[in-house]
Prior knowledge:
alpha/beta; two-stranded parallel ribbon; 15 helices; binds 3-methyl-2-oxobutanoic acid; binds zinc ion; metal-binding; 2-isopropylmalate synthase
Amino acid sequence: MSDNNRVIIFDTTLRDGEQSPGASMTRDEKLRIARQLEKMRVDVIEAGFAIASQGDFEAVKAIADTVRNSTICSLSRALDKDIDRAGEALRNANSGRIHTFIATSPIHMKYKLQMQPDQVVEQAVKAVARARNLMDDVEFSLEDASRSEFDFMCRIIEQVIDAGARTINIPDTVGYAVPQEFAATIARLIANIPNADKAIFSVHCHNDLGLAVANSLAAVSAGARQVECTVNGLGERAGNASLEEVVMAIRTRHDTLGVTTNIDSTQIVPASKLVSSVTGFPVQPNKAIVGANAFAHESGIHQDGMLKHRETYEIMTAESVGWHANRMVMGKHSGRNAFRTRLEELGTSVASEAELNDAFARFKDLADKKHEIFDEDLMALVSDTRASA
Ligand code: KIV
Ligand code: ZN
């Protein structure tokens, strides 16, 4: 990666996203999503965990065989059999990556792995070296990094970089980090590890405290140049950092963050709708960027402002993320100006100010009884006004 200000977008919807209870996907569904991710110009697609099942192996393989413009990655534990299976699934990839990981926090090493720290370092180095024999592009993750000891992380990272890892991922596996502290850790790691310049630092944040996007952006400010994320923020438990939020924050606040991505943002809403329909996980209406209300304006003051100048209440356009247009929701808070504009858009403009006032009064009456007023309601309301004139 030559451009030091470009953030690599690593999408793990098909791996961590699929770990959401109830979100499992078939091979063909994964392939459809992978094609959409490629169209969106995602840099790295984590297609699955090849050793997890025959189905996952086939999905990773089908994606590696088909998708040409994104790097295709498979997860593997730091075990020979996992790494070999990942390498096999990725054999035909135009650009493939093996992503191997081991836990580094005291709690995981003691209770889950039941291993001494020295053994963990040894296994990590061995895994990276084996993966490098199969593929040039190897990523290493320190699972539960945000609860790991700083000096131990420095030690293991220095050694896996020497063994050939080119991306070092610092996951906030349990969503425990807070932005300032996480950013400070990333900056200290980069400053203290002697061979840090040989690798790209990545982050992978979970959303247990609702801080996954904030932590990812803080890490970017501290020097991370890969963000792992998922469409609609899907993922284990409360999910992962949401791709659409990370990408649009980087785009919209370029003035402050100073970095870019290669994502075609107009493909975001189509990707969100596809992932939602495949997994059956609805997108909440007020979800940033991709929720149905993300660009809807209901209150009279907001609608009036929008009609005068879009930037009064919008920091990005609906079109820039793939919506067809912003939506003025006609409801009880809507004002006269929005009402008149919508009638004009519907080709049913009123004959006089008196008729407009009458129709507007009827509209407010109706809006008190109904949540949302549709175009058909407005048309009916105008003909009633005319009939009674
Ligand atoms: O959350 C996590 O730590 C992970 C790793 C396997 C990267 O998903
Ligand atoms: Zn994860």
